[in-house]
Amino acid sequence: MACEFNGSQALLGPVFEGGPGAVEASLNYSYIDLDGGTLQGGKFRRLGPALKWHLMDYLRIELAYGYGKLNRFGLEGVTQFFPARFLTAL
Q1: Burial readout 60-78 (b: 16 or more C-beta within 10 A, e: otherwise)
Q2: Among 1, 19, 22, 66, which lies 20 to 30 A Cα-Cα from 73?
Q3: What is the mean pLDDT of the chain?
Q4: Which of 78, 40, 48 is nearest to 64 (CA)?
């Protein structure tokens, strides 16, 4: 089976030609400090895994999860994210 390298993943044949496509997994962490001077926006952190299935060079499906935490005014709040995307490049 021929293996074509496409950026950061190896595409083992497009799904619509009988191949499995390619799967990419990642773990993302982000942090932002919104406090400065007289502005008190707080500090926000987010952590979450993501899974991407590249069906072909220009078509992919992404599923992710995120857990976020905001510290502001001495209080702490949490939230969860469940983004899903269907992407294509023209």
Answers
A1: bebebebeeebeeeeeeee
A2: 66
A3: 84
A4: 48
